[in-house]
Amino acid sequence: MNNxxxxxxxxxxxxxxxxxxxxxxxxxxxxxxxxxSVLAVVMSAMLVQEVRTNGILTVEIGSWAPPYGIVFxxxxxxxxxxxxxxIIGLTSILFAFRTIGPERERFYFYSAVQFLLTGVTGAFxxxxxxxxxxxxxxxxxxxxxxxxxxxxxxxxRESIKYILVNIVSSALFVITVAYLYAVTGTLNMADLxxxxxxxxxxxxxxxxxxxxxxxxxxxxxxxxLYFWMPGSYKAPPAAVTALFGALLTKVGVYAIxxxxxxxxxxxxxxxxxxxxxxxxxxxxxxxxxxxxYWDVDKIVIYNIxxxxxxxxxxxxxxxxxxxxxxxxxLIHDMIIKGALFMLxxxxxxxxGTSDLRQMGGLLKHHPLLxxxxxxxxxxxxxxxxxxxxxxxxxxxxxGFEAGEYVFALFVLLSSLLVLYSIMKIFIHGFWGEVKxxxxxxxxxxxxxxxxxxILIALSAAFGLGTEAAAPYITQAAETLLDPSxxxxxxxxE
Length: 493
Known about the structure:
Distance between the termini: 21 Å
Number of helices: 21
Strand content: under 5%
Radius of gyration: 21 Å
Helix content: over 70%
Shape: globular
Oligomer: single chain
Largest sheet: 2 strands, antiparallel
Structural class: mainly alpha
């Protein structure tokens, strides 16, 4: 059954290749994309259940035993993120059917989406830090296609900045991996964890740890490396922005979490304290951006930055409630950000603008859209009993237990500003004077609310079903808190 580890990776990879040959047949592309995405969701759910039953699963490519061969590792943390990725992929494709348009669909849009999902899934499952770089590049190359597809002026302008930033971060990634290999003689993450535990984390390794924080922080959009994100994520269509907002930054967050709980854990007074400061500054500047803008997309984008800070603060405190809360909040944020970007996209379709000051009264003609947004908004802000509440509560608890009282209170108070920023959209977009009559609306919501409803329902279920989700989250947190579980599962010692 260990081969099930590879199935969520192989399905989008094969689908992406197959879709290349059907670029002129849009209906076939849509059917193939949906079938592949449903298969990926099923395989990912089976993987989660298999890991729940049998513990960490590994696949050694070519039967080369670690640390010499390539290994894929499915612990509960990675498996849950793979499942969330496949769900986001399916709903984004469904949303794209009525929002992307044939001019993009003919130019390999669905193929690029499948390759993006391949890169994200591979990054979560790889047990080798060089292959993490490889899957980052698969993900990024697909995102380059998606961000520029359509060729509008904002897309071309922002894509240059996006590509340049990622070229620099990828070059720094390779350099950092080379330094790590020179010092340790291995790139297998379990072997790295074991060797550093046995030989100690020298000052040079701590410097390498900070370099990795810079590399992954640039990809995850932490302070002060988030400067590229607001413009880049606003430029493409809503279906692409939903994919980017839900998945791309989360891969950077995952990578920081993995290396800072498995490899670089022997100088936490330095490395994790820096991470704590950066996470709080990330929240601060994210909140400032979210409350400053009147652009629907920009408000949601800056709330991605806030969420990245919240999650990484849970990682930085490195205790049981903090790590559990970070996992809860990471999965919650993937789901709810996908939904909110789609909701923002629908609002723009209807009104023809992303400026809140030119919207108003959408609730009158679109009550379902309005209340879906309301549920998404209060979930994002962490209002109980929805999915954002339990994660943030545990992160704050972890901060108090670690003695980081000021930081923990700041994380708690940031929820009020997040609520203000997101409710500003609801108040100005859905309440108030009706700016457009039904006949004056620029587009229709036909077929757009189903994928959003799926994500909002999942978010609500994740919050209300916390007791059912708890064993999975606890199992994931145990592996992160005790690296020996991961190391023994991979190296089989």
